Amino acid sequence: MKQEILNRIKQLGGNTDQVTGRSLAEDLQAITFDTVLYPAPKDTPWQTAEDAEPVYGIDDFINRHEELFKTNKPAFFNKVTDHYFRMTREGLGQMFFTGQLFTPFKEGTADYKEWYPDFTDSEMVNLEEITAITNDSSPDFVHVFESYGFPDNYYICLSDPNPRNPTLFGTDHEVFFREITNEGTLEDFLQKFLTKEELIDIIKRRLES
């Protein structure tokens, strides 16, 4: 993968120490995160509604720790990052890095046993969005991200013609691989997440304005 991708993964809290560059499959599975990921707000003002906050529930969190902000700003921001940038399943609008192989066409695998009948049924699965990019009608994948939003699963095809910066595909569990969206390149997709520093900067601009 491109060095720019690895650099961004590190900025977001990921570990790339085991990435060797031997193959896309190995590299994606070698990446680990000990934190969740938060999509960056899309050029909208920070409103009081929970669905318009940069991170879900942060208004309430700030209000509960207002005195700490007034008396010790470094400690306050450490508390913010410790609370949000951790592995938690509490619904905060976060996404999770998974890095797991998904092989519905590979005989002998558990995925093949469970999913091959669906993936060979044109009424159940439609890979046209993927084959338009990869020209591969029976690919292996790596499941890269999952989320609480729509779509809630994101995959990279291992036969992507640009393994240094592959395309990400989204699908939702309710229309699993029957409806697929092209989410753009991995490099661009990673830019959609907030680093700790970026979230702190947003909060500072809000509280100090």
Characterize the structure shown:
The structure is a single chain. By secondary structure, the protein is α+β, with helices and mostly antiparallel strands. It has a domain at 96-190. It has helices at residues 3-11, 24-30, 58-64, 66-71, 73-84, 110-119, 128-134, 186-190, 196-207, and strands at residues 14-15, 32-33, 95-102, 141-147, 153-157, 167-171, 181-185. The chain has a 5-stranded antiparallel beta sheet. The chain has a two-stranded antiparallel ribbon with strand order 1-2. A hairpin with a 5-residue loop joins β4 and β5 (153-157).
Question: What are the defining features of this structure?
Answer:
two-stranded antiparallel sheet, alpha+beta, 209 residues
Would you list the SSEs in sequence order as H and E? HEHEHHHEHHEEEEHH
Q: What is the mean predicted local confidence, pLDDT? A: 92
Q: Helices and strands: which structural class?
A: alpha+beta
Uncertain segments are none
Number of strands: 7
- The percentage helix is 25-40%
Net shape: elongated
- Residues in β-strands, percent: 15-25%
Number of helices: 9
Radius of gyration: 19 Å
The biggest beta sheet reads: 5 strands, antiparallel
Terminal Cα span: 40 Å
Strand order of the largest sheet: 3-4-5-6-7
